[in-house]
Design goal:
alpha+beta; 4 strands; elongated
């Protein structure tokens, strides 16, 4: 399949490569596959997931706020930070530090914002965006592979249909010839052995027809799976159109063209993502500055929430500096460096494999043309 994929790319114009064959049935099948193929839908889901992760990383650059409200019934006193002062200023109501029961209502807003002085959050966002690019390139690779499989299944279906038509014509011709041979044998002009040989030849041709019919059925089933449509047979014509014109193939392997392959671009995006994650891991070595704030009111009654004196607020920066983490940060950096080396190796492997597949596809294409000419 990869040879077909490479060959499709090498002969492709800027538009969809399958349109260069000039077959409306193939164009219709390719369009349906791009819309209904389940592998493409799964790849679209991975792209959406990567974009959501990028959105989460982007949110770290912005301040976060929250609101909380609560109601409690507590028994206590001075130990819980709640005191009771008699209204008459006396002590008739007991000591203000003595235990008592009261309701406590509170509401507050909180604020948190991490200043990205060393770009940790920005590096995390850059890695997430590179992940989106990688998933998008993988989506394009899946689309290309699916349409290439659709084209192959369709051409094999056409080939089986052509062979089946030839086999049926040969069977009819052999059946007619068998009738003539039997007439000659009955007239004494030919031995009976000739009729037996002709009957055996006819049975051999008839035995070759069921496998061709099976091949047509299996190709239709393959198209149904690729299109995500169980009734794919209705999209195929009853009679074949004119033979498909093969696009010309000129020149050899173009490096710039191979670098445009979706799988190669996805490997390159993986390197970008791994590089950004290495920088993100190294940023954990530096201190972080976090600005926090809290403001609200609390009271023992609803009226006190608006009129009472129970205001409270706090705001200020915090400095967070890793002192001892047991080697966790260094280990994370080493793991990120190892993933980056793996991504680079995978990219080199993709390039070498791309050149090999392209050369093999071109050689096979030209050899088949030469065989067809002979």
């Amino acid at each position: 399949m990869l040879k077909v994929l490479l060959l499709c790319q090498l002969v492709a114009a800027p538009g969809p490569w399958w349109e260069r064959y000039g077959d409306p049935v193939l164009n219709r099948l390719a369009g349906r596959a791009l819309e209904g193929n389940l592998d493409i839908r799964a790849a679209l889901g991975r792209v959406a997931e990567a974009r959501a992760v990028a959105g989460e990383a982007r949110s770290a650059l912005l301040p976060s706020t929250g609101y909380s409200a609560g109601a409690q019934q507590l028994r206590g006193g001075f130990q819980q930070g709640v005191i009771r002062i008699p209204r008459d200023g006396g002590s008739s109501g007991g000591s203000f530090v003595a235990p008592f029961e009261t309701g406590l209502l509170s509401s507050s807003f909180d604020l948190r914002w991490e200043a990205s002085l060393w770009g940790a959050s920005a590096k995390r966002l850059r890695a997430a965006r590179a992940g989106v690019l990688e998933r998008a390139e993988e989506l394009e690779a899946v689309r290309l592979m699916v349409v290439a499989e659709v084209a192959r299944a369709y051409f094999e279906w056409r080939g089986a249909a052509d062979q089946l038509a030839v086999a049926r014509r040969n069977r009819d011709a052999q059946a007619e010839l068998l009738g003539l041979v039997r007439q000659r044998a009955q007239a004494g002009l030919a031995p009976e052995l000739d009729a037996e040989r002709q009957a055996a030849a006819l049975h051999t041709l008839e035995a070759a027809i069921p496998p061709l019919e099976l091949q047509r059925v299996t190709r239709v089933n393959r198209l149904a799976m690729l299109l995500g449509d169980r009734d794919a047979a209705r999209l195929l014509p009853d009679e074949l159109s004119a033979p498909v014109a093969l696009p010309p193939l000129e020149g050899g392997v173009d490096s710039a063209l191979l670098l445009g392959r979706p799988d190669v671009r996805a490997a390159n995006a993986a390197i970008l993502a791994a590089t950004a994650r290495v920088k993100e891991a190294r940023a954990e070595l530096y201190p972080r500055v976090v600005l926090t704030g809290l403001a609200g009111r609390q009271s023992t009654s609803f009226a006190g929430l608006s009129l009472g004196g129970g205001n409270f607020f706090s705001i200020g920066p915090q400095l967070v500096l890793p002192v001892f983490t047991g080697g966790r940060i260094r280990a994370n950096i080493a793991a990120s460096d190892a993933r980056l080396e793996q991504a680079k190796t995978a990219y080199e492997q993709e390039l070498l494999q791309a050149f090999q597949e392209a050369e093999d596809a071109i050689a096979a294409y030209r050899a088949e043309h030469a065989r067809l000419g002979h």
